[in-house]
Design goal:
68% of the residues lie in helices and 1% in strands. The chain is an all-alpha fold. The protein has a two-stranded parallel ribbon with strand order 1-2. α2 (27-44) packs parallel to α16 (357-390) and α14 runs antiparallel to α15 (334-351).
């Protein structure tokens, strides 16, 4: 029995953790209990040093002092405040009126607003509940199919999982040891592509089942001119003028000067992502100034639709720039961007006079509850990983997955199927803290870029909100849906969008450029041609000779490298690996 325990303690520990989760015990306490119990067993079997748990205070302090995870309460608070600010109602009403004359217009509006809310709130619950309360009754009133309406709202709300500033990308960056900014840049294009796939599906429905997605009747279109015109030509003219102004601005030296001031360094050429952020900011500013001048001076050049569209769309775009723009431009870290976003959301809610002391307290309590939930899971996962790494569990997982047939592709197929199945029972926080730390070393050993891998897993984890019968987005929608919609309608409505999400996973695997196009190009260093120069006073005035085996055939690049203290690594390796 002892020999069996000694040889198989890692798989037994993993199996016990899965069993406790299936029995319904809280995730944080299941992880911590497995870590402590199997740690004591390992010490008794002389597999682990008796001083193992002395490393635990340092690991818990690492959790509490983690600046990256500090972004979670900021973005959560921002989303909850925006949910109460009335921004979703204004967006859905305006965009619904804009797309109302065409078939599927309300569905297109829900997808567009879902993407906007995802880029501002980053919280799935806020998006789904807001759109479910506002759009679902209107869609049902004008004859939309129950399953399609439910599926569009639930799927559009889950875009907050992949479009920055997503909470899952913050957690993923922390667990993979990568920059949150890189995760955001890598996920931006896949998020837009997924939004486009949702739109294509609705377009297909309008062609195959037009009765499911009728256009708004004329009496329901309230934003129009006195002569009955919708005012689209005026809106189109405003957009064209603003775009031309932005393009003209980008062809000047001003963008480079702006980046030079922000970075306090000379910038000769602006990167593509930075150019897009600056260009969109100029476009929004020009459109807002034109609309404000038209209203203030009563010029009568813009239609009601153009004015309404501008004044409703610009504030969330400004908030997106405040959060994502500053991160992409390198001005702020994600944590600082989250803090500015939370401040901006408070200012927006106060400006709309939609924030009371009671609502502020509710938002703060919900934020504290979610943050505590995350911290407890993270502490439990650190206790589990301390023992699991100590008994070489990571090596067991590595040997199990590295030798799979198919190499990288076989590993990716297995991992995505595993995540898809586990998403039926676990949410993205639990998957990120339990499964991802075990998969990351294997992916890195197989030569897979961890930023790309994290975005891929984030897209897959998005299905955890849509899985019938346990998807949280479906539960959120069920809580606000009218009684005329059955739970089975919500489940069947989610199925096509789950399939679209699976298609998106396949697209990212087939075309890695979807993620890599937004990332900064990394510069590779030839380690064979690196020469370490030591100050002459450290070698009695004689330059240190590089051993012949370290010299390259070409002239070596001179790089000054500080000495590295490896004592801390040895200690942490003894206590189960350093994370």
């Amino acid at each position: 029995m002892i020999a069996f325990l000694t040889a198989n303690i890692a798989p037994l520990m993993f199996g016990a953790m899965v069993l406790l989760l299936l029995l319904g015990y809280p995730v944080a306490f299941s992880l911590a209990a497995c870590g402590v119990i199997f740690g004591l067993i390992g010490i008794e079997l002389n597999l682990l040093p008796a001083t193992l748990f002395q490393a635990m205070p340092d690991r818990i302090w690492g959790v509490m002092s983690n600046d990256t995870m500090l972004a979670i309460p900021f973005f959560t608070f921002m989303g909850l405040i925006l949910e109460r600010s009335g921004m979703a109602e204004d967006l859905l009403d305006t965009i619904g009126q804009l797309f109302g004359p065409i078939r599927g217009g309300l569905a297109f509006a829900v997808i567009f607003v879902g993407a906007m809310l995802a880029a501002t709130t980053g919280v799935v619950a806020a998006s789904v509940i807001s759109m479910g309360l506002i759009s679902l009754p209107i869609m049902l009133r004008y004859g939309y199919d129950k399953r399609l309406a439910s599926g569009v709202i639930a799927a559009s709300g889950t875009l907050a999982q992949i479009i920055p500033p997503s909470l899952v990308l913050i957690v993923m960056a922390d667990q993979l040891g990568r920059s949150v900014g890189d995760m955001y840049k890598g996920a931006f294009v896949p998020g837009l592509v997924l939004t486009g796939l949702y739109t294509l599906y609705v377009i297909g429905v309008t062609l195959v089942r037009p009765k499911w997605v009728p256009a708004l009747p004329a009496e329901a279109r309230t934003i129009r001119e006195d002569n009955g015109d919708v005012g689209l030509r005026s809106l189109l003219a405003l957009i064209v003028v603003s775009v031309l102004a932005a393009l003209a601005f980008m062809h000047t030296s001003m963008p480079a000067q702006i980046m030079s001031v922000m970075r306090r360094d000379v910038v000769e050429q602006v990167a593509l992502d930075e150019a897009i952020v600056i260009g969109m900011s100029v476009w929004a500013l020009v459109a807002y100034v034109c609309a404000q001048a038209n209203r203030s001076f009563r010029l009568g050049l813009l239609s009601r639709m153009a004015e309404r569209f501008t004044f409703v769309l610009i504030p969330p775009l400004a908030l997106i720039f405040l959060v994502l723009g500053t991160i992409f431009l390198g001005v702020a870290t994600p944590t600082e961007g989250g803090a500015m976003g939370a401040s901006g959301a408070l200012f927006m809610a106060l400006a709309r006079k939609r924030l009371s002391l009671a609502q502020l307290r509710q938002a703060m309590e919900s934020t504290a509850r979610l943050t505590t939930f995350v911290v407890f899971i993270l502490i439990g996962s650190r206790v589990f990983s301390l023992t699991f790494y100590g008994v070489d569990g990571h090596l067991w997982v590595e040997h199990l997955l590295v030798n799979m047939p198919g190499g990288q592709l076989g590993f990716l197929i297995f991992v995505n199927i595993l995540i898809f199945v586990l998403a039926f029972f676990l949410d993205f926080f639990e998957l990120s803290f339990i499964v991802v730390p075990l998969l990351a070393p294997v992916a890195e050993k197989l030569g897979i870029d961890l930023v790309w891998f994290g975005v891929l897993l984030g897209i897959n984890m998005q299905t955890s909100f849509m899985h019938p019968p346990f998807g949280f987005a479906l539960f959120y929608l069920r809580s606000v849906a009218p009684k005329s919609i059955k739970t089975t309608d919500i489940y069947w409505g989610a199925v096509p969008f789950v399939l679209i999400q699976i298609v998106m996973v396949c697209l990212v695997i087939a075309f890695p450029q979807l993620v890599n196009v937004g990332l900064d190009k990394s510069q590779k260093v030839d380690v064979d041609n690196v020469q370490i120069n030591i100050p002459q006073d450290a070698t009695d005035g004689q330059p240190m000779e590089v051993p012949p085996q370290l010299r390259g055939s070409e002239p070596a690049a001179e790089v000054s490298m500080p000495a590295r203290d490896t004592g801390n690594d040895d200690i942490m390796r003894q206590f189960g690996g350093a994370r």
